[in-house]
Amino acid sequence: MENGTKFRCQRIGCEAMFTEDDNPEDSCRYHDAGPIFHDGMKEWSCCKQRSHDFSLFLALPGCKVGKHTTEKPVTTAVKKPTPLPVAARVQTDMAKIDCSRCRQGFFCSDHGSLPSSVNAQPLKPRTTPPEKSNEDVKKSPPVPAKRVVDINEPQTCRNKGCGKTFKEKDNHAEACEYHPGPAVFHDRLRGWKCCDIHVKEFDEFMTIPPCTKGWHNADPES
Predict the structure, then answer these.
(1) Is the peptide bond before 129 cis (omega within 30 degrees of 0)?
(2) What is the mean pLDDT of each run of 10 residues along the chain (222 residues)?
(3) For residues 118 and 93, is the Cβ–Cβ distance under 8 A?
(4) pTM of the prediction?
């Protein structure tokens, strides 16, 4: 390989561009094990980071640090969750009945999705809204101030499908190649709605080339 040639890192969760002469030990942040998809939840098996939203799931930062590589990783097999015994399932279902969020038919992170055998029982609406105490007001987190970034400060682009390191002084309307999304995950197919490309394997999904150009963005949620 020529030292000045740029390559795209093949580690899961990275995909940054690098050269052989600029590839220090801590330049790559990645996931070293494959994802788990179960009951609408997306989870990285290596670090247990999870999300229901597929776009947010892909944006979860890697849990390992190392050097960039052009070698495609082999993801480890992930076992499906073992079903709960009957007694444990009954106990869990009873907990769902007592949970106000489950009774309203919403997804509950403590108990999972509500089984069809349990009828949703909506809570009675309050006649008057509860008053906020001074203690509640004190506990409200302050709105974080927007971070001021130096034009020469290296940042990582968080646009889906990019992941490149950039500086604001070099940023322009065609600097970034990315997927505007949203990601599509349905009937064992993975793909992007923006370019209508769908594949079966997750590794293939991660290598679908970006379809749109625009500005690099280190904080796409803002």
Answers:
(1) no
(2) 77 87 90 84 89 85 90 64 53 58 58 46 55 58 63 87 87 90 82 86 85 85 46
(3) yes
(4) 0.38
